[in-house]
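User: Reviewer 2 asked us to show a designed sequence for the structure in our supplementary figure. I'm pasting the structure tokens here. Could you produce the per-position amino acids so we can include them in the response letter?
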């Protein structure tokens, strides 16, 4: 057995014993470490190499890939790194590499399943959901968490498959991400990731959007306090959640029942025109948006013809800060055109000043055009009609929570209440810090 760290001596010993094994081990080790040496090897990196990079990106046939993994295992055994050696020759590695014989998709699916089951991949946390596309700081945080999980598992802090092991895994990951680090100047990995995500979100090719972001960027760096009038804004939310606690029987087409629609419209004056009597949910669009807002927030779900609370809905119903964050965080959620328009709308309104309807429309059109949105069929840039449809969804969401100063006429200036301004900042911060799924953020 060679001394730990003496890779050349270990490779030489393998070469003497079996030149082909020595060659395969040397090639695999070079590909694994990119010439950075043994100190660069981690369990996560080794698993990703064995289960994805080696079988998915190499032109070698599966039999040779299996032989390369086994040779790398012999190298680690020669170095006294038995834990790494065991991974190389494990049944999991054999099965994952073999899955690629049935196609790349089958192989990648097997790799993802094995990686999750290993306990080394950092889990999704309430504080941080990992993006499919990461900036350099987020990637560094991800690997820092993976390193902590590797050490914890090796030390017996948790064992995959044992009772409550996922709880222990999340605790380890949360600790490393939220604990001040001397290498980060006393900051945390979570703060580092959030700063990076905010910077990526704030930049873009739309000059209109950038001009709206710059004045409020400082306010987005920290989570805003729950406003004093949050309780008033959340009254309709709690009403609907309380009804869903017992289950709301929906109409045949899936709408809220007329009796509930009439009662809520009377209580909150969504539409109070003389002689106006709503016949159902389709006549009170703020309620449609409210129901959809709660569904997207994960607070209610539909089962058959009933709308019921989710576990999160039950937990958040009487928790004002959690309910405020969860609901208002959805005001501009999503990745499509409607969400992009909602984002621009909230940026334009966040400072609380009234915005003339025509100017508001022009701002939305310009920003959407500059961001490259277009009709998939005609390739035409957004016009007044498409913008009006998208902004109506935002207006109805704001109406549902009573976050607009004036709501009575369709062409009235747009202006947010103090609670509305806080909600806009919460929604925009939530959007900025969401996991990235595309290069532009």
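Assistant: Here is a per-position design you can include in the supplement:
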């Amino acid at each position: 057995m060679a001394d730990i760290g003496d890779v050349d001596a270990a490779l030489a010993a393998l070469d003497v014993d079996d030149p082909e094994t020595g060659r395969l081990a040397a090639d695999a080790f070079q590909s694994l470490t990119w010439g950075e040496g043994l100190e660069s090897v981690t369990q996560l990196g080794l698993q990703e190499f064995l289960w994805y990079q080696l079988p998915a990106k190499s032109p070698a046939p599966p039999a040779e890939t299996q032989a390369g993994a086994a040779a790398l295992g012999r190298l680690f055994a020669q170095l006294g790194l038995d834990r790494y050696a065991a991974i190389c020759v494990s049944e999991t590695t054999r099965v994952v590499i073999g899955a690629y014989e049935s196609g790349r998709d089958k192989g990648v699916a097997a790799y993802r399943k094995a990686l999750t089951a290993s306990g080394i991949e950092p889990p999704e946390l309430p504080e941080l959901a990992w993006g499919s596309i990461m900036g350099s700081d987020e990637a560094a945080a991800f690997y820092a968490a993976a390193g902590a999980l590797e050490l914890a598992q090796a030390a017996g802090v948790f064992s995959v498959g044992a009772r409550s092991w996922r709880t222990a895994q999340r605790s380890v990951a949360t600790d490393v991400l939220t604990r001040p680090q001397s290498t980060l100047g006393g900051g945390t990995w979570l703060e580092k990731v959030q700063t990076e995500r905010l910077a990526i979100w704030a930049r873009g090719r739309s000059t209109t959007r950038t001009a709206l972001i710059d004045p409020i960027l400082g306010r987005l760096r920290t989570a805003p306090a729950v406003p004093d009038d949050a309780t008033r804004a959340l009254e309709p939310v709690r009403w609907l959640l309380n009804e869903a606690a017992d289950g709301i029987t929906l109409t045949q087409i899936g709408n809220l029942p007329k009796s509930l629609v009439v009662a809520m419209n009377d209580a909150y004056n969504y539409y109070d025109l003389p002689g106006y009597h709503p016949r159902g949910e389709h006549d009170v669009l703020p309620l449609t948006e409210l129901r959809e807002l709660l569904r997207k927030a994960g607070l209610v779900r539909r089962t058959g013809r009933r709308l019921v609370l989710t576990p999160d809905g039950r937990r958040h119903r009487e928790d004002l800060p959690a309910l405020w964050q969860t609901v208002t965080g959805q005001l501009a959620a999503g990745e499509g055109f409607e969400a992009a328009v909602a984002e621009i709308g909230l940026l334009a309104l966040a400072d609380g000043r009234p915005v003339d309807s025509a100017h508001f429309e022009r701002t939305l059109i310009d920003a959407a055009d500059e961001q490259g949105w277009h009709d998939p069929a005609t390739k035409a840039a957004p016009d007044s009609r498409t913008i009006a449809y998208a902004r109506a969804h935002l207006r109805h969401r704001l109406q549902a929570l009573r976050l607009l100063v004036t709501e009575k006429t369709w062409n009235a200036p747009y202006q947010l209440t103090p609670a509305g301004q806080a909600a806009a900042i919460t929604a925009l911060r939530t959007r900025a810090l969401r996991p990235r799924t595309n290069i532009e953020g």
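For the response letter, you might also mention the following. The mean pLDDT is 91. The chain has three domains: 7-118, 136-194, 203-441.
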